[in-house]
């Protein structure tokens, strides 16, 4: 089965407080802005895989993951170093740092939170949306290039327009060669797609709008393979924008994501 990455080496410190994993990207991880970079979607998925696997505790689960993108994510061998920032019995903060070619690409921090039975006060305000089995396939993402875009199956919801819409995304590509992918890593590895599904520009892009971060908050863990993105994209008047999404799986809404955008004229050659 195809995979986004191949694991070269995984090492744990003697005290168990740090894990360093080395990976090589496959073509499916290739980015949409430049052929020599990785797409943030699978990059966030492989980091989530490391965060999820790091010293797990059955009484805690990930409630938020915050990714800060330091620059271009090189399409080259990279390492992910994971460690605990703030240990605790009820809350715990862990961090993964992705490096390639001697530079930091992404720093991600995840809050693990104690789980309880809160079914007596359970309540949601986000509505369910039509599931992907009821929606047509969409080739609108093919305006983007790169191996990641070629790897995804996309369905489009009604009333889709520039700046607002619902799109469902899935992929048959595993995160790591020879390993099964957890639902969490699989779905988080699709969330960054949100920034490309409702661009506020039609036809040829005159403005680039790469995101500098990805923030994911989850009131429950996602299940299954399909990710629904109920997305709004907004451009400010001074070069800053925002892509905001309600996140769905086939069972309903499970969280939200935000991406801050730097809006700049399209150069002749894209540079982060």
From TrEMBL:
Gene3D superfamilies linked to this entry: Acyl-CoA thioesterase, double hotdog domain
One Pfam match: 4HBT_3
Cited InterPro entries: ACOT8-like_C (IPR049450), Acyl-CoA_hotdog (IPR042171), HotDog_dom_sf (IPR029069), TesB_ACOT8-like_N (IPR049449)
All residue ranges annotated as the Acyl-CoA thioesterase-like C-terminal domain in the record: 144-262
Record-annotated Acyl-CoA thioesterase-like N-terminal HotDog domain positions: 31-113
Protein species of origin: Pelistega indica
Superkingdom, taxonomy of origin: Bacteria
Name of the protein in its database record: Thioesterase
